[in-house]
Amino acid sequence: MKNIFRGLGSLVSSIVLFLLIGLALALLMIQNSFIDMRFDSEYFVTVALLTGLWFYFLKTFMNAKKLAIWESSLASTISAIASLGVIAFITISQGSLAILPAYVVRKALFMEHLTTLGGMNNLLMIIIPLGIALLVLNLMKNDRFEDETTSGWNQLSKLKKFGMMSLFGIIAFFILIYLGQGEIQSTINKSMVYLKDADVEGFRDYLLSFGPLAAVISGLMMVFQSIIAPLPAFVITFANGLLFGWGLGAILSWSSAMAGAILCFYLAKFLGRPVVEKIVTKKALTWWDQFFAKYGKHAVFIARLVPIVSFDLVSYAAGVTSISFWQFFWATGLGQLPATILYSYLGENATSTVQILFFLFTIVIALAVIGMILRPKFQGWSKVKQGVKVDGNKVG
Questions:
Q1: pTM as predicted
Q2: How would you write 46-59 as a 3-class SS string?
Q3: What is the Cα–Cα distance from 297 to 391, expressed in whole angstroms?
């Protein structure tokens, strides 16, 4: 019970410290009129809080003590005093101490429709002093909370640590840009709607709106959906065929999908198995281990032939198996080539029957590959049954 309270105290301390850091950064950015007119700086608080939670997660579950700056007397003191100084100077000099921090935090936490500025100000007057008090208490404790963990941060290689922190940095930067820049957010949201609704012509028109950068945007979207977003890649491939012709469209779709697959493969190697298990689930990864062990480099090739198999799942899973990069590269490149060419051709020659043809192709390929995988089992069952019949005839 004592450890639970210490853990909660540590969590609150980390949240409040990073809240102060994020609030100070946001207020500094707001003072610049050029940035403030083009960017919602309030979301620095959002990203700072996510960073604090990420560090707390690493400290609690992986024993990454060096990242727990709220447990370091020097780091936490400097960070807290500097942040409070910036917040106090800006708000007091502008006469907005009771308004500006509440406005920034309320927007950063997406609570504009849940509470008033006065309510948020009252909440901050409770949370910040309480958090600072807990922060001081944690620093005064000599017997700091030690976590029992099966996966130590120090057991990871420098490359994997760098990979994990770099990935988080990229995600945090993307979140900051997405939330803070309205035009970028609107552009991304439009593309997500077209892909989610499988609107090929709508996505084609969306790409056309970028003019000469249409091919670049298409390639980036393909890479993005390969790494993160569970969105239908065939819509991008169809649209590329419709916009650039089946030949150039196929080359663009194939090369950008390969770039996404390679990034997933190396991300898995950088992050390591424990993190990949969180991405694809431990059960799925165990199944793929067995599948890869049985079929080797052909496993990736078979998976790429089946359109219904998750593209990024195969790439991430391959990264933590014994399959070499070149085996993965050639299996992925050759395996996705037939579908890429077909989808590009159908995209260029789009008719009302395209969707029907796509689903028929998907079903046929899926059944063919499943049959190929299950064929040895069926043959084994058949031999067993024949053996039983022969033995029965001998006994009679």
A1: 0.72
A2: HHHHHHHHHHHHHH
A3: 40
